[in-house]
Amino acid sequence: MTLSKTADALFQPFNGGNLELSNRIVMAPMTRTFSPKGVPGAEVAAYYRRRAENAVGLIITEGTVINHPAAASDHNVPHFYGEEALKGWEHVVREVHAAGGKIAPQIWHTGTARTREKFPESDAAPVGPSGLNLMGQPVSEPLTKEEIHGIIQAYADAASDAKRIGFDAVEIHGAHAYLIDQFFWGVTNKRTDEYGGDLVGRTRFAVEVIEAVRKAVGPEFPIIFRFSQWKPVDYSAKLAHTPEELKNFLEPLSAAGVDIFHASTRRFWEPEFEGSDLNLAGWTRKLTGKPTITVGSVGLDSDFMSMFTEGKGSQTAGIGEIIERLERNEFDLVAVGRALLGDPAWAAKIRDGRTEELEVFTREALGTLS
Ligand SMILES: Cc1cc2nc3c(=O)[nH]c(=O)nc-3n(C[C@H](O)[C@H](O)[C@H](O)COP(=O)(O)O)c2cc1C
């Protein structure tokens, strides 16, 4: 097989953070709502298998909710608990492994992103550190400590199941203003106990989740932690305004047992702080010394929110800059979202230099599990 010379860096093996991968391409977690009653079926398995067959080194699944009555914010999102859903996931793992791929579930609690309107039949009210939605308005009571401990246990149980049914790693969803990020963010966390306070205080919930997950999976099973500065209601939001603040934020998470950080940004080329062109994954790698995954508009000409705000797909774009940054070791792994939705063979085509065959991403791609 001839490697496209420019893409070589993407196809180097990776060995770090307890994880060995055949290359640097990661499928980004993407919610697809194709799992009726929370059970991922044969179509979901085939969808992930197609990406594994086509040279994706690591697949991170769509967000899959932990065993708590208010964890989901949408119907048809897969569960990561219960015999039937876990059997479905076991089948997904088998299919991906049969195609030579590796896979991690993204475990998720949506916090107050859940709304009563969406679940009128359910008595499970949304939960959050202070019972506030993303605008800071009250929608329920603040979580009690007992409830917090129960939710932490549910994350640990999910991670333990991930390991038991054969996944290669687990990703904890700490980004995008869902439950863990609601603890990080001052707008949604007004607690005055040990789970609130300054940014370091607000990492405590995540730290306890990571510690519980580590205890559940043992020292060698890879834990990936995804976080973001941006929030769906405020793209310019920042948890950390300076490298020092970012260091203070990441250190407790790193010490709690994260193996690989996944820094979620919308455009990988944007510098995170003035005075350096490092992006968020670059800074995270530099400050923690841990491997990192970057993400955001790789291979596409517009960011993923344009799909919602302008109803737009995206055209393909060159991959020169992502390769250059990878060659400089700014980060270790590159997650690809919509480009892999639009074209299951994106990674194989990049590897083989068949760039003229790349399919563009359109909104219609969201309507099927192709
Ligand atoms: C349809 C769709 C669903 C998504 N669902 C999730 C999700 O469940 N969990 C998550 O962390 N990010 C989710 N994201 C964000 C992606 O993982 C990724 O960070 C984002 O799309 C930027 O990458 P891209 O520009 O390559 O698409 C989703 C994105 C899209 C387009």
From TrEMBL:
Pfam families: Oxidored_FMN
SUPFAM superfamilies noted in UniProt: FMN-linked oxidoreductases
Organism of derivation: Paenibacillus swuensis
PANTHER family: NADH OXIDOREDUCTASE-RELATED, OXIDOREDUCTASE-RELATED
InterPro entries listed in its UniProt record: Aldolase_TIM, OxRdtase_FMN_N, Oye-like
Gene3D superfamilies in the record: Aldolase class I
Source taxon at top rank: Bacteria
Name this protein carries in UniProt: 1,2-oxophytodienoate reductase
GO molecular function terms noted in the UniProt entry: FMN binding; oxidoreductase activity
